C-alpha cells in the first residue's frame, strides 16, 4: 500500500496545527501535539467529575476514581500488561525511571555489582543509574552500537554478565532513531539473573508495544510524547517486583494505616502514588490512546516510515547535510539527527524558525552518545503522523537558505 504523504487528514484534529497552518512542526520527539479530543477530555474532567479520587464516598469522587481506573485499564491494554493494577502513574518517564532506580535499584545492587545500559540513553535513563552506582560502589557498564547505531548481540553478551544486576535500555533512541532489540537484551539479562528496564518514551508513539512479548521487567513512558497531556508518566512492572519495592514518596493516599510511631502501605499501585494525582491528565491520556487506536498504529507507522524515507531522500540531495547514524531510513523511527557542515545547530534552528519550521538543536539530553560519536551538538527533525511532505519540503528550503546565508551562495 502506497502512503500519500502529500495528503494530510490529521492536522485538522490538532488545534495548534489547524490554527497555525504556516507552522511546520518537526519536534514531536520532544513533545507531541495534542488532538482536540484530548484537550476536550481534560476540560471535561474538571467540568463533570472534579473531585479528589479515592478520598470520597460521594458520587462525584466515585466517578473520578472510576475514570482513573478506566485509564489504568486502557493503558494496560495498550501495552498488553497482564493486569491493570500493575500500572503506576507519575509525572513523567523521568520520575518513573528514578522510582525504579531508587526504590528497586538501590536495594537490588551492591558494591561490586554492575548495572548495564547503552551509550545512547537519554539522561533520564543514565543519571539515576550513575548516581546509584556512585552511592553503592557498583560499576556502570555501557553497551555501544555499531556504525548503523545497532547494539549487536555480541556486544550485549560481552557487556551483560554474571555481575550484572540491572540492564536498562532505551527502546528507541531519541537521537539515532534506532530500535534496540530489547527482547533479546531482556533474554540475555535474565540468563544472567538480571532484570530488564525499558525506557519506552520514544517507542510507544511509533511502535506496537507488548511488554509481555518484550520480556522486560519494567517499562516506562510519558503521556506527552503519546499525544497526551504533559505531567503524566507511566510505569508498568512485574507485580512481584512492585510488591517488594518500598515507596519512594510518602504521604496521603499511599498508606494502609498510620500510628504515632509507624505506618503501613497501601496496595500496588496506590503505594507509589502519594498525594493528589493529576486525575484530569490520566483521563486525557485515556482519550489520547483512544485517538491513536482509531487512527491505527499500523497506519501511523506506515505514514511515518514514508515521511522519514522522503525526508532522508531530500536531505541526501544536499551535499552540506551530514546525517548522524544509519543511512537506512528504516532504522530511523521518526527521528533524523543531522548537521549542516560548518554551521552551529543553534544557528540552523534559528534561521529555520524565521520561516516557521520548528526543529530541535542541541545535545538532546544524550551528551555521552554525542561525545562518543564525536559530535558536540546536532539538529534533529522528528516526525509524527500529522506531518506531511510540505513540512519536509519547507525544512529542505530552509536548510538551503541556511547554507546560502552562511556561505554567501
Summarize this structure as a short list of keywords or feature phrases.
single chain, 409 residues, alpha/beta, Aspartate Aminotransferase, domain 1, Aspartate Aminotransferase, domain 2, 2 domains, 7-stranded mixed sheet, 15 strands, globular
Structural features, described:
Helices cover 40% and strands 16% of the residues. By secondary structure, the chain is α/β, with parallel strands linked by helices. The protein folds into 2 domains: 11-26 and 296-407, Aspartate Aminotransferase, domain 1, CATH 3.90.1150.10; 38-293, 3-Layer(aba) Sandwich (Aspartate Aminotransferase, domain 2), CATH 3.40.640. Strand 9 and strand 10 (263-265) form a beta hairpin. Helix 2 packs antiparallel against helix 10, helix 4 runs parallel beside helix 5 (127-136) and helix 11 runs parallel beside helix 14 (389-407).
List the helices and strands and how they pair.
Layout (H helix, E strand, L loop, with lengths): L14 H4 L5 E2 L10 H13 L10 H20 L8 E4 L2 H16 L5 E5 L8 H10 L2 E5 L9 H7 L4 E7 L11 H10 L3 E5 L11 H4 L3 E5 L10 E5 L1 H6 L10 E4 L4 E3 L13 H17 L1 H20 L4 E4 L10 E6 L4 H10 L2 E2 L1 E3 L4 H7 L4 E5 L6 H19 L2
Helix pairs in contact: 2-10, 3-10, 4-5, 11-14, 12-14
Percent of residues in helices: 25-40%
What's the alpha carbon Rg, rounded to whole Å? 22 Å
Mean pLDDT: 97
Domain count, please report it: 2
CATH homology superfamily of the largest domain: Type I PLP-dependent aspartate aminotransferase-like (Major domain)
Annotation field: number of helices? 14
Main sheet record: 7 strands, mixed
From N to C, what is the helix and strand string? HEHHEHEHEHEHEHEEHEEHHEEHEEHEH
Total beta strands: 15
Which strand order spans the largest sheet, edge to edge or round the barrel? 2-8-7-6-5-3-4
- The poorly predicted ranges are none
Broad shape = globular
Termini Cα gap: 41 Å
CATH architecture of the largest domain: 3-Layer(aba) Sandwich
CATH class membership of the largest domain: Alpha Beta
Class computed from helices, strands and strand pairing: alpha/beta
> What is the beta-strand fraction?
15-25%
CATH topology of the largest domain: Aspartate Aminotransferase, domain 2
Amino acid at each position: 500500500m502506497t502512503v500519500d504523504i502529500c495528503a494530510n487528514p490529521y492536522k485538522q484534529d490538532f488545534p495548534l496545527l489547524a490554527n497555525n497552518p504556516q507552522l511546520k512542526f518537526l519536534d514531536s520527539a520532544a513533545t507531541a501535539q495534542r488532538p482536540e479530543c484530548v484537550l476536550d477530555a481534560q476540560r471535561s474532567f474538571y467540568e463533570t467529575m472534579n473531585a479528589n479520587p479515592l478520598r470520597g464516598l460521594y458520587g462525584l469522587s466515585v466517578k473520578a476514581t472510576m475514570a482513573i481506573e478506566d485509564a489504568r485499564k486502557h493503558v494496560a491494554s495498550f501495552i498488553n500488561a497482564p493486569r491493570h493494577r500493575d500500572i503506576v502513574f507519575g509525572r513523567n518517564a523521568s520520575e518513573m525511571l528514578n522510582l525504579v532506580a531508587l526504590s528497586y535499584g538501590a536495594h537490588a545492587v551492591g558494591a561490586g555489582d554492575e548495572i548495564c545500559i547503552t551509550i545512547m540513553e537519554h539522561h533520564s535513563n543514565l543519571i539515576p543509574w550513575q548516581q546509584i552506582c556512585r552511592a553503592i560502589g557498583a560499576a556502570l557498564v555501557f553497551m555501544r552500537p555499531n556504525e548503523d547505531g545497532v547494539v549487536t548481540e555480541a556486544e550485549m553478551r560481552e557487556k551483560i554478565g554474571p555481575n550484572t544486576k540491572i540492564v536498562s535500555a532505551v527502546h528507541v533512541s531519541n537521537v539515532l532513531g534506532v530500535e534496540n532489540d530489547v527482547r533479546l537484551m531482556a533474554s540475555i539479562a535474565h540468563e544472567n539473573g538480571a532484570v530488564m528496564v525499558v525506557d519506552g518514551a520514544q517507542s510507544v508513539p511509533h511502535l506496537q508495544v507488548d511488554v509481555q512479548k518484550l520480556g522486560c521487567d519494567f517499562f516506562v513512558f510519558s503521556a506527552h510524547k503519546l499525544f497526551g497531556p504533559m505531567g503524566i508518566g507511566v510505569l508498568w512492572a512485574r507485580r512481584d517486583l512492585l510488591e517488594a519495592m518500598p515507596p519512594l514518596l510518602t504521604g496521603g493516599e499511599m498508606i494502609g494505616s498510620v500510628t504515632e510511631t509507624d505506618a503501613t502501605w497501601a496496595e500496588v499501585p496506590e503505594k507509589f502514588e502519594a498525594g493528589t494525582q493529576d486525575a484530569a491528565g490520566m483521563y486525557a491520556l485515556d482519550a489520547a490512546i483512544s485517538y491513536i487506536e482509531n487512527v491505527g498504529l499500523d497506519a501511523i507507522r506506515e505514514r511515518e516510515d514514508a515521511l522519514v524515507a522522503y525526508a532522508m531522500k531530500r536531505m541526501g540531495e544536499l551535499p552540506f547535510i551530514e546525517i548522524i547514524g544509519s543511512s537506512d531510513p528504516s532504522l530511523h523511527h521518526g527521528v533524523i539527527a543531522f548537521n549542516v557542515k560548518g554551521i552551529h545547530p543553534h544557528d540552523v534552528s534559528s534561521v529555520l524558525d524565521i520561516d516557521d519550521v520548528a526543529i530541535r538543536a542541541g545535545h538532546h539530553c544524550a551528551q555521552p552518545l554525542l561525545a562518543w560519536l564525536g559530535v558536540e551538538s546536532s539538529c534533529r527533525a522528528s516526525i509524527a503522523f500529522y506531518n506531511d511532505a510540505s513540512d519536509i519540503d519547507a525544512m529542505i528550503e530552509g536548510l538551503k537558505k541556511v547554507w546560502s546565508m552562511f556561505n554567501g551562495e
